[in-house]
Amino acid sequence: xQHTFDAIILGGGAAGLMCAIEAGKRQRRVVVLEHADRVGxxxxxxxxxxxxxxxxxxxxxxxxxANPHFCK
Length: 72
Prior knowledge:
- The protein is of the alpha+beta class.
- Helix content is 26%, strand content 11%.
- The protein has helices spanning 14-25, 41-47; strands spanning 7-10, 30-33.
């Protein structure tokens, strides 16, 4: 059986998954190749699914946003 794809994404991390999502929105056939046992694994390890803040002494009050809970 032969498969054809419009795009091959190397790496199933955050950037690779975003590329695959955007290509899919454009009706492209995409395959994501990842060496880990599942795609997105590093995203969960590094931030629990949330954005990482690296400043040690930062509190939610220090961020400006229309959504006051965006960094919690």
